[in-house]
Write a structure and sequence with these properties.
The protein is mainly α. 70% of the residues lie in helices and 0% in strands. It has a domain of 74 residues.
């Protein structure tokens, strides 16, 4: 008859074999990470305020909409694993790597799916996951140090990673960034050497098929998840665009007609869907048929394309005419650096003066230039002190509309700028 101690040994042996087969054997680096996580969790849970904050965060993270996103994400990753298994690529030893990636790097890409509408997002994401840096990250994690070395090293790595971010003073931040860069460069060199020595020592016994599979597995997973990131971003952008349509829709117009017309016109073009989510789709919302909504959405897209080309031309001219004294056919300076910024600052100054005039019996504030500081001083520009040109024309800031008048002058710029003058 088998005793309880023997049954326990057999159970532990089966558990150990299962953990080994599914890749759940932890190395010293992973044990050190778990130990430090446990320390921080124990410290955090000892504080009532931390427990309450964590409970609130979890409740927010699993709201109905977010829970649906997490379910879609997990199902998407599980579907890829099933696909890899069906074609014979999957190995059980990848289970731990897949779970760790899903709750770390993969989750991070899902959390910021709203950033996918930015131009060039997917190109940068692909380069990030399949580039040399991704391969180097995998190589330096193959060989680990002793547990006590990992326990000491991980807080130091965290310190040098966080220090340049939390330091507020610019000069000190630059120094910390320089020190941090050198630290990580030296650490990378040491870890690559340590990994190379490990690979050389186990060259004949290494399972190179598994080695290559583990190297490319996170990259393929990341590319797979980018598909669902795109889908979530499209759905979220359309949701915001539909809200805009509902706000401007006439009461006698069915809510589905403008939405269908918008979808037919923009389809899966994420950039224009995101533009529609910002607004300016009043004509689409007021359309009385799918056809008219479609035409209005096409016009909306064409207008945004024209604006984009105009902005690209403006930005190119800023570089092209740097330092040029040339005037256009209307006598306006072609070098328009800082014109927009100056107009924006003056209009903000005008807005503030109007507000203070209405609230305070003493009228306008004569010291607004000092209160605004660098926002309204020549120091705000590193390329062209535009306010040195135009501020002398403003006269007394207490005069109603003086700031708006100068903003209009800057917009038209019908005369060449006078010589710089001190304010």
């Amino acid at each position: 008859m088998v005793g309880y101690s023997e049954l326990a040994k057999i159970a532990l042996a089966h558990i150990g074999c299962w953990l080994h087969d599914y890749g759940f054997e932890l190395n010293s680096r992973e044990w050190a990470g778990l130990i430090w996580i446990g320390v921080f969790l124990a410290f955090g849970f000892s504080k009532p305020t931390v427990r309450k904050s964590l409970r609130d965060v979890l409740c927010s993270a699993f709201s109905p909409k977010l829970a649906a996103i997490w379910a879609i994400y997990v199902a998407w990753v599980a579907g890829f694993v099933a696909l890899a298994h069906s074609v014979g690529v999957w190995r059980n030893v990848l289970t731990k790597d897949t779970i760790v990636w899903t709750v770390t790097a993969g989750l991070a890409s899902i959390v910021v799916f709203t950033e996918a509408s930015k131009p060039g997002y997917f190109g940068r994401a692909v380069l990030k996951v399949v580039g040399v840096v991704a391969l180097l990250e995998y190589l330096v994690t193959l060989a680990t140090f002793h547990l006590w070395v990992e326990l000491m090293l991980q807080p130091i790595v965290a310190f040098f990673a966080v220090a340049p971010i939390v330091v507020k003073e610019s000069g000190l931040r630059t120094s910390w960034q320089r020190v941090s860069t050198w630290f990580f460069a030296i650490l990378m060199f040491i870890m690559v050497g340590h990994t190379s020595r490990m690979l050389y020592g186990s060259w004949s016994t290494m399972d190179w098929g598994l080695f290559v599979l583990r190297a490319i597995w996170p990259m393929v997973l990341a590319l797979w998840v980018l598909i669902v990131v795109f889908g979530l971003s499209v759905v979220a952008s359309y949701e915001q665009a539909f809200l805009r349509l509902d706000w401007g829709r006439d009461e006698d117009v069915g809510d589905w007609k403008p939405k269908l017309g918008l979808v037919l016109a923009l389809r899966l073009q994420l950039r224009w869907i995101h533009e529609a989510a910002k607004g300016r789709t009043l004509d689409v919302g007021r359309a009385h048929s799918v056809r008219s909504a479609f035409q209005a959405a096409k016009s909306f897209k064409a207008e945004r394309i024209v604006e984009k080309r105009r902005e690209d031309t403006y930005q190119a001219d800023l570089i092209r005419y740097v330092g040029s004294a040339e005037l256009d056919e209307k006598g306006r300076p072609r070098d328009k650096r800082e014109f927009r910024e100056t107009i924006r600052a003056l209009e903000w100054l005008h807005t503030c003066q109007m507000g203070w005039y209405r609230r305070e019996p003493v009228g306008y504030k004569p010291d607004l230039i000092e209160l605004f500081g660098d926002d309204l001083s020549p120091k705000a520009s590193s390329s062209l002190p535009a306010l040195q040109w135009w501020c002398p024309m403003m006269g007394n800031f207490g005069m109603l509309g003086a700031e708006r008048q100068v903003a209009t002058i800057l917009r038209s710029a019908q005369a060449s700028p006078p010589k710089p003058m001190a304010i």
